[in-house]
Amino acid sequence: MLSESWRPYFEWCGNTWLGSSVRDTVWAFPLIETFHLLALAVLLGTVLIVNLRVFGLGERYVSVPQIARQLEPWMLIAVAVLFASGIPMAFSEPIKCFESYSFPIKMGLIVVGIASQLTIQRKWVITGDAAAGKAKFAAVLSIVVWTAVGAAGKGIPYV
Amino acid sequence: MNSFAKATSITVNISESNNAVHLLSFCEWLQNLPWASGIKHSTWQFPVVESVHSLALSVMLWPAALVDLRLLGAAMTRRPVSQVAAQFLPWVWTGFFTMILSGALLFSSEAVKCYNSPFFRVKVLLLGVAGLNALIFHKTVFRGVAEWDKADSTPLRAKLAGGCSLAVWIGVVAMGRALAYA
Predict the structure, then answer these.
(1) Are the Cβ atoms of B87 and A61 closer than 8 angstroms?
(2) Residue A99 · residue A1 · CB < 8 Å
C-alpha cells in the first residue's frame, strides 16, 4: 500500500472533471473497461505470439523479427488505448486504487515492462540475432511481467 | 381470437413459464452447490477465475481478430489467408476452451444473477452468432480459399465474415463488462 503522503494527490484526481464524469455516468466505467480489456488482449496477445516464437512455439511460418514487425503498429495502438482508458478509470475511483495493494504493484510492473520492452526486448528478441539464452530470458520476462500487469489490474477491486 | 387460439396461447404461455421456472430453479440449484458458492464466497477464487477469464482473451481474441483483420485486408496482407488461419486458429481454440471453462465456473457461482441479466442473455446470443458466422464461413467461402489466398482483396463474403466476427466479439466483451456491474 502507498504511503499516506500520497493521499492528497489521489483525492485531487477524484475531484477532477474527468473523475466525477466517469463516476456520474452509469455506463461509462463498463464501456471504458471494455476498451481497456480489448487493448489488453491485443498487447498481451502480441507479447505471447512474439515471445513464444522465441521458443519455437505458436508461430510456424515467419521468424521472430518478421512477426514482431507485423504486430508492432497494433501493439503501439493498444498501448495508447490502454493509457487513454486506464487513466479515466483510475481517476474515477482513486481512493480504491490508493488503498489497494494491486494498484501500486501494477504501476511498478508497467514501468518494468516498458523499460524491458525498450531495452532487452529490442536488443535480444526483436533483432533475432542475440544469443539464444539472452533472447529466452527477455522473452520469459516479457510474458511474466505483462501477464502480471493484467492480473494485478484485475486485483484492484479485491486487494 | 377464437377459443382454439386462446387455448393454444394459454398452453404456450404455461409451458414457457414452466421452462423459465425450470431454468431458474436449475440456476438456483447450481449456484448453491458447495463448489459453486465456494467460488463466490472465497476471497480469492472469484478474482483468480475472473483473471484467467480476462487474460485468456489475449490467447483467443487477438489471434481471432488477426484472422478477421487479414480477411478485411487490414493486417498481414503479405501472408496467404490460409497461412494466417492455420497459424492462429489453434490459439483461438486453446483460448476459447479456457474461456468456456473459466466462464462456466463464473456462471455457476452467480447463475441467478446471470439468469436475470439482459446483458448475459445478449452475450449468449452473440456467442451463438459468432459460432454460426464461423461455421458458415468455413463451410462456404473458405472452402475456395485457394483462389484468393494471396490476393490483396478478399471476396466480399470473406470481408463480411471477418467484420461480423470482429463486431460480435467486441460485443461479447462489452456484455461481459456490463454484466459485472449490473
Answers:
(1) yes
(2) yes
